[in-house]
Specification:
165 residues, Xre/MbcA/ParS-like_toxin-bd, Xre-like_HTH, 67% helix, mainly alpha, Antitox_Xre, DNA binding
Protein backbone atom coordinates (compact mmCIF):
# COMPACT_ATOMS: atom_id res chain seq x y z
CA UNK A 1 0.00 0.00 0.00
CA UNK A 2 2.81 2.44 0.86
CA UNK A 3 4.53 1.61 -2.43
CA UNK A 4 1.28 2.38 -4.26
CA UNK A 5 0.98 5.76 -2.51
CA UNK A 6 4.65 6.49 -3.24
CA UNK A 7 4.07 5.70 -6.94
CA UNK A 8 1.00 7.94 -6.98
CA UNK A 9 3.04 10.72 -5.35
CA UNK A 10 5.68 10.36 -8.08
CA UNK A 11 2.94 10.45 -10.73
CA UNK A 12 1.52 13.58 -9.09
CA UNK A 13 4.98 15.20 -9.20
CA UNK A 14 5.25 14.46 -12.93
CA UNK A 15 1.71 15.53 -13.72
CA UNK A 16 1.81 18.84 -11.84
CA UNK A 17 5.14 19.66 -13.46
CA UNK A 18 3.64 18.79 -16.86
CA UNK A 19 0.50 20.88 -16.24
CA UNK A 20 2.57 23.89 -15.30
CA UNK A 21 5.01 23.45 -18.18
CA UNK A 22 2.25 23.17 -20.82
CA UNK A 23 0.10 26.01 -19.55
CA UNK A 24 0.29 29.76 -19.78
CA UNK A 25 1.41 29.98 -16.16
CA UNK A 26 3.82 32.80 -15.46
CA UNK A 27 7.28 31.24 -15.16
CA UNK A 28 8.20 33.87 -12.54
CA UNK A 29 6.41 31.74 -9.93
CA UNK A 30 7.96 28.44 -11.02
CA UNK A 31 11.22 27.23 -9.42
CA UNK A 32 14.00 26.58 -11.93
CA UNK A 33 14.30 22.98 -10.70
CA UNK A 34 10.69 22.20 -11.60
CA UNK A 35 7.66 21.79 -9.40
CA UNK A 36 6.74 18.83 -7.24
CA UNK A 37 3.26 18.20 -5.90
CA UNK A 38 4.39 19.40 -2.44
CA UNK A 39 5.90 22.55 -3.96
CA UNK A 40 2.63 23.19 -5.74
CA UNK A 41 0.53 22.81 -2.56
CA UNK A 42 2.84 25.28 -0.79
CA UNK A 43 2.74 27.91 -3.53
CA UNK A 44 -0.55 29.83 -3.45
CA UNK A 45 0.29 31.78 -6.62
CA UNK A 46 0.77 28.56 -8.60
CA UNK A 47 -2.44 27.14 -7.17
CA UNK A 48 -4.36 30.26 -8.20
CA UNK A 49 -2.98 30.11 -11.72
CA UNK A 50 -3.79 26.40 -12.13
CA UNK A 51 -7.29 27.02 -10.76
CA UNK A 52 -7.87 29.84 -13.26
CA UNK A 53 -6.68 27.69 -16.17
CA UNK A 54 -8.66 24.71 -14.92
CA UNK A 55 -7.42 21.40 -13.55
CA UNK A 56 -7.09 18.81 -16.33
CA UNK A 57 -8.78 15.46 -15.76
CA UNK A 58 -5.38 13.72 -15.73
CA UNK A 59 -4.35 15.70 -12.64
CA UNK A 60 -7.75 15.32 -11.00
CA UNK A 61 -7.64 11.55 -11.51
CA UNK A 62 -4.31 11.31 -9.66
CA UNK A 63 -5.51 13.61 -6.87
CA UNK A 64 -8.69 11.55 -6.59
CA UNK A 65 -6.62 8.37 -6.25
CA UNK A 66 -4.33 9.95 -3.65
CA UNK A 67 -7.11 11.35 -1.42
CA UNK A 68 -9.38 9.35 0.89
CA UNK A 69 -12.50 10.56 -0.94
CA UNK A 70 -14.82 8.35 -2.98
CA UNK A 71 -16.26 9.29 -6.35
CA UNK A 72 -19.53 10.05 -4.57
CA UNK A 73 -17.69 12.40 -2.16
CA UNK A 74 -16.09 14.14 -5.13
CA UNK A 75 -19.42 14.57 -6.89
CA UNK A 76 -20.81 16.20 -3.69
CA UNK A 77 -17.74 18.42 -3.26
CA UNK A 78 -17.91 19.56 -6.89
CA UNK A 79 -21.72 19.76 -6.88
CA UNK A 80 -21.97 17.72 -10.06
CA UNK A 81 -23.39 14.27 -10.75
CA UNK A 82 -21.14 11.23 -10.88
CA UNK A 83 -22.18 10.88 -14.53
CA UNK A 84 -20.94 14.40 -15.30
CA UNK A 85 -17.74 13.65 -13.40
CA UNK A 86 -17.22 10.57 -15.56
CA UNK A 87 -17.78 12.65 -18.72
CA UNK A 88 -14.70 14.70 -17.87
CA UNK A 89 -12.70 11.50 -18.26
CA UNK A 90 -13.76 11.16 -21.91
CA UNK A 91 -13.16 14.72 -23.07
CA UNK A 92 -9.83 16.56 -23.01
CA UNK A 93 -11.35 19.66 -21.40
CA UNK A 94 -10.29 21.08 -18.06
CA UNK A 95 -12.54 21.50 -15.05
CA UNK A 96 -14.11 24.92 -14.60
CA UNK A 97 -12.30 27.23 -12.16
CA UNK A 98 -14.99 26.77 -9.50
CA UNK A 99 -14.50 22.99 -9.65
CA UNK A 100 -10.72 23.31 -9.94
CA UNK A 101 -10.63 25.35 -6.75
CA UNK A 102 -12.49 22.62 -4.86
CA UNK A 103 -10.18 19.93 -6.26
CA UNK A 104 -7.12 21.86 -5.06
CA UNK A 105 -8.76 22.51 -1.67
CA UNK A 106 -9.34 18.78 -1.14
CA UNK A 107 -5.74 18.08 -2.17
CA UNK A 108 -4.64 20.63 0.45
CA UNK A 109 -6.80 19.06 3.16
CA UNK A 110 -5.40 15.62 2.34
CA UNK A 111 -1.84 16.94 2.43
CA UNK A 112 -2.36 18.50 5.88
CA UNK A 113 -4.22 15.42 7.14
CA UNK A 114 -1.39 13.13 6.09
CA UNK A 115 1.15 15.42 7.76
CA UNK A 116 -0.83 15.20 11.01
CA UNK A 117 -1.82 11.54 11.03
CA UNK A 118 0.95 10.05 8.90
CA UNK A 119 -1.46 7.44 7.57
CA UNK A 120 -4.41 7.67 5.16
CA UNK A 121 -6.55 5.22 7.14
CA UNK A 122 -6.13 7.17 10.40
CA UNK A 123 -6.89 10.41 8.56
CA UNK A 124 -10.02 8.90 6.96
CA UNK A 125 -11.18 7.62 10.35
CA UNK A 126 -10.77 11.13 11.79
CA UNK A 127 -12.73 12.63 8.86
CA UNK A 128 -15.62 10.22 9.52
CA UNK A 129 -15.73 10.70 13.32
CA UNK A 130 -17.77 13.53 14.91
CA UNK A 131 -15.43 16.10 16.45
CA UNK A 132 -16.30 17.95 19.65
CA UNK A 133 -14.06 20.83 18.54
CA UNK A 134 -16.07 21.11 15.31
CA UNK A 135 -19.46 21.22 16.97
CA UNK A 136 -19.78 17.41 17.06
CA UNK A 137 -19.92 17.39 13.27
CA UNK A 138 -17.90 14.96 11.19
CA UNK A 139 -15.03 16.85 9.51
CA UNK A 140 -16.05 15.22 6.19
CA UNK A 141 -19.39 17.04 6.38
CA UNK A 142 -17.65 20.40 6.72
CA UNK A 143 -15.63 19.95 3.53
CA UNK A 144 -18.57 20.96 1.35
CA UNK A 145 -17.68 24.65 1.50
CA UNK A 146 -14.59 26.83 1.91
CA UNK A 147 -15.37 27.98 5.45
CA UNK A 148 -15.80 24.38 6.56
CA UNK A 149 -12.55 23.43 4.85
CA UNK A 150 -10.77 26.21 6.75
CA UNK A 151 -12.26 24.93 10.02
CA UNK A 152 -11.03 21.40 9.24
CA UNK A 153 -7.51 22.61 8.35
CA UNK A 154 -7.43 24.75 11.51
CA UNK A 155 -8.43 21.77 13.64
CA UNK A 156 -5.80 19.59 11.95
CA UNK A 157 -3.21 22.26 12.69
CA UNK A 158 -4.26 22.38 16.36
CA UNK A 159 -4.02 18.57 16.57
CA UNK A 160 -0.58 18.74 15.00
CA UNK A 161 0.57 21.19 17.69
CA UNK A 162 -1.09 19.23 20.49
CA UNK A 163 -3.77 21.85 21.18
CA UNK A 164 -6.85 19.77 21.92
CA UNK A 165 -10.13 21.48 22.66
Amino acid sequence: MKTLKRNIRQELDKEISNVIKHSGINNYHVPATGVTYSDFLNNKLLMIQVIREGVPYSLFSLIQTFTPFSEENWSHFLDISTKTLQRYKVGPKNFKPIHSEKIIEMAEVTNVGLDVFGDMEKFKLWLDTPSFALGSIKPMELLMDSYGKEMVISELTRINYGILV
